[in-house]
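pipeline stage [seq->struct] | target=HXXXD-type acyl-transferase family protein | organism=Populus tomentosa | residues=447
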Amino acid sequence: MGIQCQETPPPLQDLKVTIQNSCLVFPNQETAQRKSMFLSNIDQVLNFNVETVHFFASHEDFPPQTVAEKIKDALEKILVPYDFLAGRLKLNARTGRLEVDCNGAGAGFVVASSECTLDEIGDLVYPNAAFAKLVVNSSDSLEKDGKLLCIIQVTSFKCGGFALGISTSHATFDGISFKTFLQNLAALAGGKPLAVTPCNARELLEARSPPRVTFPHPELVKLQTHLGQELNAPVFDAAQEALDFKIFRLTSGNFSDMKEKAKTSPSARVSGFNVVTAHIWRCKALSQSEAQDPDRVSTILYAVNIRPRLIPPLPESYAGNAVLTAYANATCKELQEGPISKLVERVAEGSKRMTDEYARSAIDWGEIHKGFPHGDLLVSSWWKLGFDEVDYPWGCPRYSCPVVYHRKDIILLFPDIDDKNSVNVLVALPSKEMEKFESLFHKFLSA
């Protein structure tokens, strides 16, 4: 069926990146007068940086120096509608909540160069630890007024190609609103108006007063300390252990076969995300030693966009985090013996559960408990976000990806660089678990 499983190719360990210049960039006109921006309970627990890299081939009309000038100019302009990106996170001592001080202290802009060519980097699909050099996520020289919420780095390669590295606080964007930000940045870089006017009203996701938790929320766990003392608490513990790293590529042919097996009737519709999530869930859960207990319950988590699920719906242009964690449960026996159709139904139920009332209940739960998502496995999908579809004056990226840090309890889904109907599944596990995972991956696909 064309299944491919590959070890990480020997990555280029050193991209030989030199920072040429770094500076603060400020809004090019006065922004609306507001002292602080409210952050929702979803935003509150996402106080960590997300780093993405967008690779571009050389373009004779847009050498890297010209691109850097246009991106800097666009950044100055975009900090007007996105004024919070020029602000700083602060803890409100009275409420005990994080908020953004919209003080216009500036965003970061960095120009760098690499002694490598794009071709020398190799296959861009394989997340490379060296990509971290293409993104500056903090700078002592620029952060005298507090940690920056946005830093953009333009790195030129010897071939004339370049990379756009962007670090933003996750408290500012989810994947959907970050794509909108990229579309707006691309439009402004081309001398055009904003593609979409962002909606910055985070109060739209404010908890009810008083909060009403109307559902159990096993997908969430309470914090043991006050939020203000737990600003960098991880959703999953990053255990320091040796992990093998492999990418499993599922082709469009694989999806057709998997969807057919998962159908409960000839006319049933099965989503690609649900079927691949069910497949990797059973492989991951059964690769662990705990799987020897058939009654052990495994919980999988994944994100659901709540914009269209609320009443009334959130604007598509909502600029904050509007995703909540859906979950599915199954025993190891069910994962081992159950047909794929039943597991796909379990995954689908997690999304169906996310009604307006359920979402409001989860937000209200966060108001009371200040908690985090909690489960055995998180599937983080970058598959359909479409960052590489954003059209800049110099064209769309050759590839876009996050800077990846391998975690055993997070499995990432990436688009393929050549076939948008294929998906790359990034798995990092201890050696013995990886052997078991790979065996199960092929066994269940061929069953």
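stage status: PASS
auto-comment: Confidence is low (pLDDT under 50) at residues 225-238. The first helix runs from residue 41 to 44.
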